[in-house]
Write a structure and sequence with these properties.
Blueprint: H1 3-16, H2 20-26, H3 29-32, H4 47-58, H5 60-69, H6 78-84, H7 96-107, H8 110-113, E1 114-117, E2 123-124, E3 128-135, E4 140-146, H9 150-166, H10 173-177, H11 180-194, H12 197-210, E5 217-218, E6 231-235, E7 240-241, H13 245-250, H14 255-273, E8 275-277, E9 285-287, E10 293-295, E11 301-303, H15 306-320, H16 324-333, H17 340-359, H18 365-378, H19 385-404, H20 410-424, H21 432-462, H22 471-505, H23 508-531
Parallel strand pairs: 5-10
Antiparallel strand pairs: 1-3, 2-3, 3-4, 4-6, 7-9, 8-11, 9-10
Helix pairs in contact: 1-2, 1-4, 4-5, 9-11, 14-19, 14-20, 15-16, 15-20, 17-18, 21-22, 22-23
Length: 533
């Protein structure tokens, strides 16, 4: 579709649902000319309801965009998030004749590939449709089939969204502050990943590898021979959704054990592997009659590098201990951004939220996580997509598991297992709380010190403030800084080690010796630094 024509369609739908002002601000004038004279067709619905209805009418891309935005409670009011949660997950099915054409174009004649295929779809979403089939080899599979021409339609809509995002700041200061074009860019990457069936298959196999140690977790097998860019053939496993508690109980399954199984699976994915199933909606977590937990749908995956895993570990400890300063520091390490004065006020807001939780007898730490995100939104702050995806995944998992086991508390349970998680990652967290976190900060700061000092020295020489210095001496000084700071790093490490000596090894003489060695190294480093030796 022509880009201008699509913008006209978008403008028409927005006017119909009462958003004339929005159209005047964000739709280019070339597309607005043909919209003159259109009138709203609205009743008594509220603004957020009308917005949800407009997104539904605009089709798959905008439905997905609304579903994406509901995962950003740091950006949107809670009332709007609740409204967006009502966006349809199902759409009108593709006629089977069209499904058959797609299959035969990619895989060959139906009768030569399958002994049976169910013409009624298992489900029908905005991007794809699923059918159950039996391969000639005898395996039962789910065929995930991309909707015809959906890729081209989404490409057109994404370009339209980018155009609208460039003008979004005219509507709301919040949209300007949150860099709405960047939000659209993140969404564009996400929806394109969901359309990449080959990548989804590889993600399923990676999660399957991660979950090998769990005997009661299953990840469907990918049938690569029958998978392409338009079709994903994945093993069919029968079960019920994880939130169908009555059905699960009727099968004789211990719901507490099932909840803990799911918890440990996500614990490993997020806090050890850094690659996790990012869409734990109940329909994507199935339970078999044998009590097995089945992960399905791998279109949305989360990725955490090592340093981000460490930050989430620190955040968990800080929330558990009501350490407001550390909560904010950890969130900044996760990419929290916004005006600096708002960061300071955020600490006060979090402190008040935690106080109110105690007054209201809300002692579960997982409730605090939601309160913290509410405080972030209140102060016009935001988190990067991946960090927010991780938090939302944790909150969804917590909600699912509390339905199975009401006494479950995600943060509390995670806190119990942190030492074991750290051990499996090769990190000593025997004294993580307080002194451990301070030690991590000290080590990181000291490691960065040589580079920071060298950068500062060169800035003095090459920058707008100039001094006449001998370059040979400058290089000598730079070398001395490097050597001295690494000695200081060693001294700090020895001091931390010695402080643990008493509690771990009960060897006070070793502590005294180590302290003396640390002090000596520090003194020699400072002496060499100032005498430039």
């Amino acid at each position: 579709m022509d880009q201008r024509k699509r913008l006209e369609d978008i403008g028409s739908v927005l006017i119909k649902h009462g958003f004339e002002k929005v159209v005047r601000e964000i739709i280019p004038i070339t597309a607005r000319l043909r919209l003159m004279g259109l009138k709203p067709q609205i009743g008594d619905e509220g603004t957020y309801t009308r917005l949800r209805e407009a997104l539904s009418e605009l089709g798959p891309t905008f439905i997905k965009f609304g579903q994406y935005m509901k995962t950003r409670p740091d950006l949107l009011p809670p009332e709007l998030v609740k409204e967006l949660e009502q966006l349809p997950d199902k759409t009108d099915p593709i006629p089977y004749d069209e499904v058959k054409k797609i299959i035969e174009k990619k895989l060959g004649k139906i009768d030569e590939v399958f002994t049976e295929i169910n013409e009624e779809p298992l489900s029908s979403g905005s991007l794809s449709q699923k059918h159950v089939a039996t391969l000639r080899e005898g395996d039962k599979v789910v065929l995930k089939i991309k909707r015809p021409e959906v890729t081209e339609a989404i490409d057109t809509d994404l370009k339209a969204l980018e155009t609208l995002a460039q003008h979004a700041g005219k509507i709301s200061d919040e949209l300007k502050l949150f860099n709405f074009p960047e939000v659209v860019k993140d969404f564009s990457l996400e929806i394109q990943n969901e359309l990449d069936f080959v990548s989804e298959g590889k993600s399923a196999e990676l999660i399957s590898k991660e979950m090998e140690e769990f005997t009661k977790i299953r990840v469907p097998k990918i049938h690569w021979k029958y998978t392409s860019d338009d079709i994903l053939a994945i093993e069919y496993i029968e079960g019920v959704k994880i939130n169908q508690v009555e059905e699960i109980t009727a099968m004789g399954i211990n719901t507490k054990e099932l909840a803990l199984l799911c918890f440990h699976a996500y614990l490993k994915q997020i806090f050890i592997d850094g690659f996790y199933h990012g869409d734990p909606e109940p329909e994507n977590l199935m339970v078999t009659g044998k009590g097995e937990l089945v992960f399905i749908d791998f279109g949305l995956m989360g990725v955490l590098r090592r340093e981000k895993i460490d930050m989430f570990t620190r955040l968990t400890v800080a929330i558990f201990e009501d350490d407001v300063d550390e909560i904010v520091r950890s969130m900044q390490g996760l990419g929290l951004w916004g005006r600096s004065e708002e960061i300071e006020l955020l600490k006060d807001d979090i402190y008040v939220e935690l106080k109110e939780d105690k007054v209201n007898m809300i002692h579960r730490s997982d409730n605090k996580l939601s309160s913290i995100i509410a405080a972030v939104r209140k102060r016009d702050l935001a988190l990067p997509m991946q960090s927010m995806l991780t938090i939302n995944t944790l909150l969804k998992v917590n909600s699912n598991l509390k339905a199975l086991y009401p006494n479950f508390g995600l943060i509390n349970e995670t806190n119990i297992y942190l030492p074991d998680l750290a051990r499996r990652r090769g990190v000593d967290l025997s004294n993580l709380r307080k002194s451990g976190l301070s030690f991590m900060d000290t080590i990181q700061s000291t490691k960065d010190l040589p580079q920071h000092m060298n950068d500062a020295l060169r800035t003095v020489i090459e920058g707008p403030i100039r001094f006449k210095l001998d370059y040979e001496n400058l290089d000598n000084l730079s070398d001395s800084v490097d050597k001295a700071t690494y000695k200081i790093l060693l001294a700090v490490a020895l001091m931390i080690f010695s402080s643990q000596n008493v509690t771990i090894y009960n060897f006070p003489i070793g502590t005294v010796i180590t302290y003396l060695l640390a002090i000596s190294l520090g003194a020699i480093s400072i002496y060499n630094l100032f005498l430039n030796k």
